[in-house]
Prior knowledge:
- The protein has 94 residues and is mostly helical.
- The chain has helices at 29-44, 53-70, 73-81.
- It has a domain at 29-81.
- The chain contains 3 helices and no strands.
- It is extended, with a radius of gyration of 19 Å.
Amino acid sequence: MTDETTAVDTATTPEADPATNQPQTMLSLQDLIDIQNLIAVVTQRGAFKAEEMSAAGTLYDRLTAFIKTLIPPEAETTEETAPAAEGTYQFQGE
Length: 94
């Protein structure tokens, strides 16, 4: 048995919740938009079976509606009229 130490990347390791001592998991707005885009891409590529399409579509619609509640109205109109700058959210609306 060797005495190896494993380096842990603290930038990606969530901190523990003091109340439960469980790692805190968080999704950012960009994570949600990435999931939405992933659903759109795999749907376009035919990755879902026909009987799975309605569930994927329902999830996509719910996720889109939720994302729209998180983006301020002025951010939506700005994105429509100007190209996205680095560090801004890419929202793929309907």
